[in-house]
Known about the structure:
Helices cover about 70% and strands about 0% of the residues. By secondary structure, it is an all-alpha fold. It is globular and about 45 Å long.
Amino acid sequence: MAKEENEIQLDFLDGEIKIELSNETPNDAEEAMPPEEHVGRKPFIIHDFDAPRDREMAVFTRAKKLSEYVFVITEKSPKKLRWSIVARLQNCSVDVIEYLYRANYERDAEPRREYQKRAHVALNLLDFFAETAKRKQAISMRQMTIIAREVSELKRLLNGWIKSARSGNG
Length: 170
């Protein structure tokens, strides 16, 4: 059941990425998605992230999709913000993935917990940067809400991983 729910949520993020790539407003996008050939710019979809859903922990797949979403929505951000808050938002989304991978490759419990803790801090920072980017009008309220929801879900998955590691299962 949880696997199906995760796939539904990943499909939602895929849909949001397609909406951003199609240059449509949210109301237009809810009515109908245009065919891929009518998209205003070349799609930025990383298909490598779609295949390993069954082989990879959900936290990794969700973090990758969130990072992809962040890069797509910030592509059209104002130039004056690209090297400040937008860069921080993008870098933080990549840092989350880095810390998750580093934690996964650690065999000792203490370094693993440290990287998991860093991933958690990076998620908190990502949430903060998204809120700041919204205040500076680099992203929309809707985009910030999607990021906040995904950050919350990633925290839940990360906490589950930490708990399972403590009990000796991961």
